[in-house]
Write a structure and sequence with these properties.
The protein is α/β, with parallel strands linked by helices and about 400 residues long. It is built from 10 helices and 17 strands. The strands form 4 sheets. The chain has a 6-stranded mixed beta sheet, covered by helices on one side. The chain has a 6-stranded mixed beta sheet with strand order 7-8-9-10-12-11, covered by helices on one side. The protein has a 3-stranded parallel beta sheet with strand order 15-16-17. The longest helix is centred in the middle third of the chain and has 25 residues.
Length: about 400
């Protein structure tokens, strides 16, 4: 059985105000070609299909067309991530054909999409993004809610997966059939993963990650959320955990990523085999630094067609800086002047999506009051932040 693992399309996203729809379409066209040429049996999309809960109409149409094209060649299984609205993405999932399966409800965790094969079935267990505040009651085995953490809700979800897998394995062996192989499709921050600046913070109770051990007992875990393609956990472990990563670089922290999709081969027995297929790069991201004269000359030549963040280091701000830089680099997204004296003195920490929002808030309190927040004040800040994040997800 050959699977293709992808995630974090973020349809509808912009990059410093630039519309990425056409670049995302290049990736989707590439994806259809890979599925066709590599004879893929199923496509697994591990969340953050859209960039926000209420996506633009153009993004909905783009997803609809992509799913229709992919379904001509393979079964498609997708789950919502923390950027998606599970209700909106999952609307009509019970009415979809067998070729497109949307697993969007937490109460359906543990019910696999069965991919039949003469060599033994492959069971795909979709885990929609599990917000601890909602899922701790839905997934609780009794009346008492689970602990308020990602590890607790993912652990409860995987208990359901392992119970169903054990029952189906016993049935297959009793009937003289090959034991099924198992795949979990999950959107989460797993310990050991390397984050970038463009992922939205998902911390609850001050913690945003879950241990790799929570996924023990299955063959492959197709992860979404982190934008860098990477394997996490022990390289010798039976369970292979991998992030597919985003198809495009969505921040300058991803400029050095090699974006890809993962082709996963599952034989009836033996280890999981993974081969990465590089994604197309419609336009590169690059950081360029130097004096304006250098950048307008030979030093800037390799980057004139890139999306660039330009840092000009002249002692004094050059006249018409922005216009002159844009004349040289028509796709410049950020233009900043940072003379050597200022760089040596240090600058205030830049607030990006990678920064802990609670840390930024604590720094502001310290700046205004002259002292860091007390324990009680820190608790109020955390509760306010988590309420704001929950309100945004439910929009």
């Amino acid at each position: 059985m050959r699977l293709l693992h992808t995630s974090d399309w973020h349809l509808g996203r912009t990059l410093h105000g630039v519309d990425l729809t056409a670049h995302q379409q290049v990736f989707l066209d590439h994806l259809v070609e890979v599925v066709r040429d590599e004879q893929v049996d199923a496509v697994l999309v591990a969340g953050d299909v859209y960039d926000r809960a209420i996506p633009p109409v153009e993004s909905v149409a783009q997803l609809s067309a992509a799913l229709a094209r992919l379904a001509e060649h393979a079964v498609v299984v997708l789950t919502p991530g923390n950027h998606d609205s599970a209700v909106r993405l999952g609307f009509g999932s019970d009415l979809l054909t067998e070729r497109v399966r949307v697993v969007a409800r937490a109460d359906q965790v543990g019910r696999p999409v069965v991919l039949p094969s003469p060599d033994g079935d492959v069971l795909v267990y979709g885990l929609p993004y599990l917000d601890p505040d909602a899922a701790r009651r839905t997934l609780a085995p009794g009346d008492e809610p689970l602990a308020r953490s990602h590890a607790a809700v993912l652990g409860a979800a995987m208990d359901r997966v392992r119970a169903d897998l054990a029952a189906r394995t016993a049935d297959a062996l009793a009937a003289g059939r090959t034991a099924p192989r198992s795949v979990v499709l999950a959107h989460a921050f797993v310990v050991g993963g390397a984050a970038s600046e463009s992922e939205r913070d998902i911390r609850v109770g001050g913690v945003d990650h879950a241990p790799t051990a929570v996924f023990d007992g299955v063959d492959y875990v197709a992860l979404g959320h982190l934008h860098g393609p990477q394997r996490v956990g022990d390289a010798d472990a039976r369970t292979v955990l991998r992030y597919a990563g985003s198809p495009l670089a969505y921040s300058f922290s991803e400029a050095r990523h090699t974006k890809s999709t993962a082709l996963v081969d599952l034989a009836p027995e033996g280890p999981v085999r993974v081969r990465l297929v590089p994604a197309p790069v419609p336009r590169r991201l690059a950081d360029v630094t130097g004096t304006l004269a250098d950048l307008l000359g030979e030093a800037g030549e390799p980057h004139v067609d890139d999306w660039v963040r330009v840092t000009v280091t002249d002692d004094h701000r050059p006249a018409d800086l922005y216009a002159r830089v844009r004349g040289r680099f028509p796709h410049a997204l950020v233009v900043q002047h940072r003379p050597p004296a200022r760089a040596a003195a240090g600058t205030a920490g830049e607030v990006t999506a990678a920064r802990d929002p609670l840390e930024v808030a604590a720094e502001f309190v310290a700046h205004v009051t002259g002292a860091p927040p007390t324990g009680a004040e820190a608790a109020v800040l955390r509760r306010a932040y988590e309420d704001a994040v929950a309100a945004e997800r439910s929009a």
